[in-house]
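Data deposition worksheet. Section B asks for the primary sequence of the deposited chain exactly as it was used as input, without tags or linkers unless they were present during the calculation. Section C holds the resulting structure in token form. Section D is free text for depositor observations; keep each observation to a single sentence. Incomplete worksheets are returned to the depositor.
Section A, Depositor: J.P.
Section B:
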Amino acid sequence: MTQAAEKAADSRGVLFRDTETQRIPELDGLRGLAILLVIICHYIANASHPPLGFVADHLITILDLGWSGVDLFFVLSGFLIGGILLSSRNSPHYFRTFYLRRVHRILPVYYSWILLYLVFVGICVYSSLKPVIMTPPGIALASQDLAVVPKYVLFLQNILYSPRPFEWQWFVVTWSLAVEEQFYLLAPPLIRWVSQRVLLVTLCSTLIAAPVLRYISFVYFPQLNRFAQFAMPCRADALALGILAAIAWRSKAVQSYLQRNPGFLQRASVYLGVCIVGLLWWLVRPPNVVTVTAGYSFLAFFYVSLLLLVISQTNSFLARCMRISLLRRLGGISYCVYIIHQTIHELGHRFLLHQEPDLSHWQGIMTTCSAFVLTLTIASLSWKFSEKPLIRRGHRFTYET
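Section C:
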């Protein structure tokens, strides 16, 4: 085995050993890229900008593809969680350790966000301070806005999807958290109890079944077409592909092949990127049958090729980009940023300018920039004083005996 291959083989164990505390620079960079894409979509592409002119308006519309950052998050979750579970599948503390670590990582920030929603809506609806604490301009809050909380507590918002206006502004992005939580219920027993051969068949079957389910949901059940975008079975292919990448990365044969053929992943990424450009007309438009079938699938394969490229070719230009300090820092705080960024942006424009986000004037641009800075500040404080200590506490639970 060559020195490069030995280094790659050694890195397999490092990648899946306490990944949340021993952070892999390139993967933090990919997290940063994912959240940056989402922010660009929500802060720029989704804002009003027709007054900027025909050319500028259409160029900005292309940035709407930033929603695919969620698909990159799915691939990363499948790869990292799948890899950790595969490495620990024989541990006597397998389920206890996995779920207790997930509880420490996911629930505190998320449930704090739900609690803040309850407090804010409760004050707006029931308090005598209504003239002082105003509801968002243009949105009427009622007791029904409190009745929606149980579905978020139980991570059912991607199934029971019929948000009220303010509920949408506060929780719209959390559908993907529900998908991941449902993934956490299914993946551990599957990896623990089935053979690798059955696991491979199941994962490959998922890659085929998911786009078929999306097509059926979108075309034949239009009243449920949201399932094609948000339901766990319909979005499971990106997560399954991430697990398959984790299995491949643990294989000496695959590692050896990638070392002997460094151009393989580069060509794959370029070819898949070209396919995405070919689908761009559909991908930047409202949900359509092309996007929910071929679009989601090509994006998942594209992002998994980028993932394998940056961890297998650490000297490549892309890997060096993923190690940029600012991008890695953004990846480190990406969880809190993801949860709060849309709400801060939407409410900032409503309270300060009394309108939807609009980038056609300097006031709207300044409000958006302020929302971005505020989001990063809150997320950084959350990471330093809450998330990081809680992750360390969660890692007191170990897979070893």
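Section D:
The first helix runs from residue 3 to 15.
Residues 1-14, 17-21 have pLDDT under 50 and may be disordered.
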